[in-house]
Amino acid sequence: MKIAFIGGGNMATALIAGLANKLTAGANIHVVDPNAEALARLHQQYGVSTASATDAAAGAADVIVLAVKPQNMREVAAQLLPLLDQAKQPLIVSIAAGIRSVDLARWLGGYDAIVRCMPNTPALIGMGITGMAATGGVSEAQRKQADDILSAVGQTVWLDDESKIDAVTAVSGSGPAYVFYFMEAMQQAAAEMGLSAEQGLQLAQATFGGAAQLAARSTEPVQVLRERVTSKGGTTYAAITSMEASGVKAAVVAAIKAAQARGKELGDELGAA
Ligand SMILES: NC(=O)C1=CN([C@@H]2O[C@H](COP(=O)(O)OP(=O)(O)OC[C@H]3O[C@@H](n4cnc5c(N)ncnc54)[C@H](OP(=O)(O)O)[C@@H]3O)[C@@H](O)[C@H]2O)C=CC1
Ligand SMILES: O=C(O)[C@@H]1CCC=N1
To answer: Which of 36, 168, 190, 221 reaches 20 to 30 Å from 93, CA-CA?
Structure first.
């Protein structure tokens, strides 16, 4: 399978790292990005071919992954349209937050073989999760192609309604940043209590990794797992009581809903153009 990436930034790099020489040879991956340094690094690490602007090789791929910022999607669609092999009908996979398939299809002159996805950066180590939705023009074989690509870098979740991608974006697309934010807070607290920066990082990493694995392997709800750590009148009780008093859970729910609203807003703003 020949895969082209338009945009070779953070998320494309995470996907390429998981795919190259695993699902398909690095030589079957073509990356388009204006940054020569980033392209040279990708070529050196994974053996991908590169171009500084969308070219015939990108248009001729079996699957074309659009991995530019939402604000650049319209311009990229305009660059791609004349190069798209209309007879072959390659699959377009968009990973941009907010951008709706209906708008992308319009920018591509009515092209309707689009899968809209929302991956996340743990794809870099094969531990991503991607929400996915297909438009009507996507064949069963193309649906499988999209699933094969995103399954190569982690789990996939197919959605019955594309609008749910904004919720996936808010929970798992942006989610790694929430985890890193919480780890930063744990590290800060560890430092303020006299532990070294290394010890704080080690404790936070092992705690997140261990708790996530425990939750994944348990048949019980996470609430029960949390209660099992929380001895009555003990230390965890003091911490959770403090978090509840500060409204941490409500703040996290509100933050995730703000991310969802921003996704919808991006779709409204950029789709209207
Ligand atoms: N980062 C993440 O965790 C996730 C990101 N996404 C989505 O992925 C997309 C990319 O995000 P991310 O990788 O973080 O962004 P980056 O800015 O890291 O990468 C985008 C790349 O595209 C390049 N670019 C801009 N215009 C063009 C063009 N016309 N042709 C080819 N390349 C171009 C940019 O170059 P330059 O910088 O010079 O403009 C940049 O190198 C976004 O739409 C985002 O919503 C989805 C899930 C998670
Ligand atoms: O912050 C963003 O807009 C992108 C989408 C999900 C993760 N990063």
So the answer is: 36
Identify each DSSP E strand in 58-136 by its residue range. Answer: 63-66, 91-94, 114-118, 128-134
Sorted by where each begins, the domain ranges of the chain are 3-167, 175-264
The rounded Å distance from CA 113 to ligand 1 centre is 21
Task: Could you please state the CATH topology (level 3) that the domain comprising 3-167 is classified under.
Answer: Rossmann fold (3.40.50)
Q: CB under 8 Å to 46, separation ≥6 — which residues? A: 16, 17, 20, 21, 26, 29
Whole-prediction pTM value? Answer: 0.96
Q: How many CB atoms lie within 10 A of CB 207?
A: 12
ipTM value: 0.99
Pocket of ligand 2 contains residue 50 by CB under 6 Å: no
Longest dimension (CA), the chain: 69
- pLDDT one-digit tens code per residue, 89-103: 999 999 999 999 999
Mutation choice for ligand 1 from 15, 72, 76, CB with most ligand atoms inside 8 A: 72
Helices (H), 152-247: 165-168, 175-192, 197-217, 222-229, 235-245
